[in-house]
Structures are given as C-alpha cells and as structure tokens.
Design a protein that fits this description.
The chain is of the alpha/beta class and about 325 residues long. The protein folds into 3 domains: about 5-85 and about 270-290, NadA-like (Rossmann fold, 3-Layer(aba) Sandwich); about 90-170 and about 295-310, NadA-like (Rossmann fold, 3-Layer(aba) Sandwich), CATH 3.40.50; about 175-260, NadA-like (Rossmann fold). It is built from 17 helices and 12 strands. It has helices spanning about 5-15, 30-35, 40-50, 60-70, 85-90, 95-105, 115-120, 130-135, 150-160, 175, 180-190, 205, 215-225, 240-245, 255-260, 275-280, 290-310, and strands at about 20-25, 35-40, 55-60, 75-80, 105-110, 125, 145-150, 165, 195, 210, 230-235, 250. The strands form 3 sheets. It has a 4-stranded parallel sheet, sandwiched between helices. Strand 7 (about 145-150), helix 9 (about 150-160) and strand 8 form a beta-alpha-beta unit. The longest helix has 20 residues, at about 290-310. The chain is globular. The termini are far apart. The structure holds 1,3-dihydroxyacetonephosphate and iron/sulfur cluster (SF4). The site of 1,3-dihydroxyacetonephosphate has 11 residues, from loops. Iron/sulfur cluster (SF4) binds near residues 172, 173, 174, 200 and 268.
Length: about 325
C-alpha cells in the first residue's frame, strides 16, 4: 500500500474504532503527522491519563505505552511494535534496583520515566526530563536520593540543584554516543549556530551546549530565539516538528556531518506507518499488565503529575 493510502485508512480506522494516536517527537514524520497529540514524555503521560477514547495507540517506545496503560487502565493501549524498547529502560533491572535500595535504606528513589513498570513500582517519584530539576528541588535539602536509571540526566540535576544524588549507571545509547568533538566540528562550520542538547547527552557534550532541555523545551527554545541556525544534539525525529514550526530556520544534525543515521533511535524507528495500520486493524499489540503492577507503578507517576501541577509545569 502507498503511504497516502495507508494514511487515509489509518484515519478511517481511527474514527471507526474511536481511537486516538499519541506520538512522540522522535517518531517518523508520517506518524507524527497522523498523531492526535505529539509531545514529550511528560505531556504524553498527561494526555494518556485524560484520554476518553476506547483505544490509545501509543507511537513511541514500550515504557511510554506502559505508562499510558498504568494511568488509564480501562482503555485498550496498543503499540505498533512491541519490540520498541529503550536502552535506558533496559539498563535498570528491578531486582538489582531493589538490592541497591536495601543498601541505602535512608534514600528515596526518583526514577526517570524511561524505565520499566517494575522499576517504577520500586520508586517513590517518577520524573521526566521536563520536570526533573523542579521535582528534585522541591524536596527538602537533607532528603537523600537515589536517581535511576540515567546517570547523565542525574548529573545535570545534581549540578543544577547542588545535590549529591546517588546515580544509577544507565545511559541512552543514542545521546551518550554523541561526541563533543562532533559539536566542535559543527561549530566551526556554523559559527553563528546555537547548540541545543537533550540532558541524556554525555557531560562533555553538554558543556558545549547553549541550551539543555527536554524535547518540548528545545522546541520552545527554538521558537522563542531569534537565531537562525541550530546544532541539534538529540534524536533526528524532532527535526520534523522544529522545521514545521520554524520554516525559516536551519537545523543541523550529527547525521549531516557524518552522512549517517547515528542520531536515529533504533527503537523509536521500529514503528512504521504499515505497522500502525496493522495495529489499528488487528488491535494488537496490546499492553497487558497485572492489576497489582498497575497499582504499584501508578503511585509514583501520580506523585509526579501532582507535583508538576502544583509547580505549574503542567495544568
Ligand atoms: P523527552 O521526555 O524529552 O521527550 O525524552 C524522551 C526520550 O526518550 C529521550 O530520549
Ligand atoms: Fe530510549 Fe534513547 Fe531511544 Fe529515548 S532515544 S527511547 S532514551 S534509547
């Protein structure tokens, strides 16, 4: 089937089945264009919690679809490719985290949303890159904290808040592999460009950045800034939305320098238009979780949403 035919069939199925499509900024352009709502992890979690449609098709990675199911368990939650994992989620095993917790009984656990439901169930509060700093800063200064699983985001937050959180040793393979030397080369080619980076990047790269923030925060920064060129240190999918919102600005990626697909997340890109169509038609693959797991993973996510509302990060 051609892309146009697939897109119109997806729209038709969506209507017939009272389904909505939630899409992350790292999804393929054609999927973003079909999504009812595009956002970062925080906004998508909030959208999922409020959704009234019978079916939520989550075009993102598995932990995101799982979060949608946890927050809205009476809906059918589907993901186009069940294999769409995340290297951060894979880096943190729930049993190992439980062992680490028992070695630090006076610490609470804040986990980045990029983790499994079993890890969420072991956590006191969940955070995203859009609210991590404010959530950590809202806790009493003497509160001891274990931060899992992203050590790069954790050290950004330690620096910003002056804390000394214990960091789990996990990374996102896409962002951690982006090298500061590549930014330096791009800066020589585009000396006027601003460097914007996701906090999952390694500390050396982040030292080169003019702005560090979540996907949504990067989009906001570009919209509000008058500069006409940006070196973008994050997954390639975001360029689609950036370019749409800022047609007269230029976005430079690592892939441009190397002529490669090094800034594609192999997990995010598993979702294709064809799989999205099949997923809606056959109503699979469905996220299935035990009520006990839903219950224990929901508490720390709800805590995050509650703090985020109180701090005015979301409404
Ligand atoms: P955001 O919450 O900033 O969209 O990030 C999600 C993600 O997976 C980053 O790699
Ligand atoms: Fe996970 Fe990295 Fe892919 Fe985001 S970009 S989903 S953190 S592997």
């Amino acid at each position: 089937m051609q892309q146009q035919e697939l897109s119109s069939k997806i729209k038709q199925l969506k209507k017939e089945k009272n389904a909505i499509i939630l899409g992350h900024y790292y999804q393929r352009a054609e999927i973003q264009d079909l999504s009812d709502y595009i956002g970062d992890s925080l906004a998508l979690a909030q959208q999922a919690a409020q959704a009234t449609a019978d079916i939520i098709v989550f075009c993102g990675v598995h932990f995101m679809a799982e979060t949608a199911k946890i927050l809205n368990p009476s809906r059918k939650v589907l993901i186009p490719d069940m294999q769409a994992s995340c290297s951060l989620a894979e880096s943190c095993d729930a049993e190992e985290l439980a062992k680490f917790k028992s070695q630090h009984p006076d610490h609470i656990v804040i986990s980045y949303i990029n983790c499994s439901a079993a890890v969420k169930a072991q956590s006191d509060i969940i955070c995203t890159s859009g609210n991590a700093e404010k959530i950590v800063a809202s806790l009493p200064a003497e509160q001891k904290i274990i931060f899992a699983p992203d050590r790069n985001l954790g050290s950004v937050i330690n620096k910003l808040t002056g804390r000394n959180m214990l960091l789990w040793d996990g990374t996102c393979y896409v962002h951690n592999d982006m090298q500061a030397s590549m930014v330096q080369q791009l800066k020589q080619l585009y000396p006027e460009a601003k460097v914007i980076a996701h906090p999952e990047c390694n500390p050396e790269l982040l030292n080169e950045a003019d702005f560090i923030g979540s996907t949504k925060a990067m989009l906001n920064y570009v919209k509000q800034n008058t500069c006409s060129q940006y070196i973008v240190a994050t997954e390639s999918g975001i360029i689609h939305q950036m370019q749409k919102e800022n047609p007269n600005k230029q976005f430079i990626t690592f892939a441009d320098l190397r002529n490669c697909a090094c800034d594609d997340c192999k997990y995010m890109k598993l979702n294709t238009l064809e799989k999205l169509y099949n997923c809606l038609e056959t109503e699979s693959s469905e996220i299935i979780m035990s009520p006990q797991m839903i219950e224990s993973a929901r508490k720390p996510i709800e805590k995050m949403l509650e703090i985020s509302k109180k701090l005015g990060i979301i409404r």
